[in-house]
Amino acid sequence: MLDALSLAFGQIADPAFRRPLLKGAGLAALGALLLLWGCIEGAAWAVAGAPGWIGWIAGTLGGIGGVMLAWWLFLPVAVAISGIFVEEVAHAVEARHYPGLPPARGAPIAAQVLWGLTFGVKMLAVQILLLPLMLVPGIGFVVALVVSALVLGRGFFEGTAQLRMSVAQGRAQARARRWSVWGLGLALALLSLVPVLGLFVPSLGTAAAVHLLRRG
């Protein structure tokens, strides 16, 4: 798993890989800004009309809460966008590291976008369900990280596998490599917590999943 992620980072200098990486990061950043704006505006609307200093305090706390909520929900937005670039990223990785492979059968763009949206909705549901756990000091964060890692790892692996095999075959491959897939998800979940670096998680996750699929 670490080798797969290391190879993904090592390909950033490759223009064929860097193009979808930067495009994905740019769209993820735009999504994050819109999410941040929406959360802050929503908080401001909720306390509108509150009298004097109470309104100021409520607005300040609401703004802080909006920022935290946007940060927590950023990952589902980023992975939902990733479906647009999964084939371009996978093709760049295979061309660089596995040139002997026959051309991938690919997947229709509609199927890739649908995969990204489904992945994003799953991630959003998990993030919302795990939100109360974040109020439990220590153990809450650990449990949230473990569960998020499972969803992230399987999502990126199966989404990448669909370019060369059926959905059922991709799921079977994910089960056969369950610990490596979970480890990849854990690494990506941790990376997503790092400002700016989190923008690149979808492309790096796709690239690392290609290596896991090829190398086991």
> Whole-Å distance between the termini?
9 Å
Number of helices: 9
Strand proportion, as a percent range, falls in under 5%
Order of helices and strands: HHHHHHHHH
Please tell me the total number of domains.
1
Mean pLDDT across every amino acid position: 83
The helix fraction, in percent, is over 70%
Residue runs with pLDDT of under 50 for 5 or more positions: none
Overall shape: elongated
Q: Return Rg in Å.
A: 19 Å
Sheet with the most strands, sense and barrel status: none
Number of strands: 0
State the secondary-structure class: mainly alpha
Keywords: Membrane, Transmembrane, Transmembrane helix
Subcellular location: Membrane
Pfam family, one: EI24
Transmembrane segments: 27-47, 53-86, 107-129, 135-157, 178-201
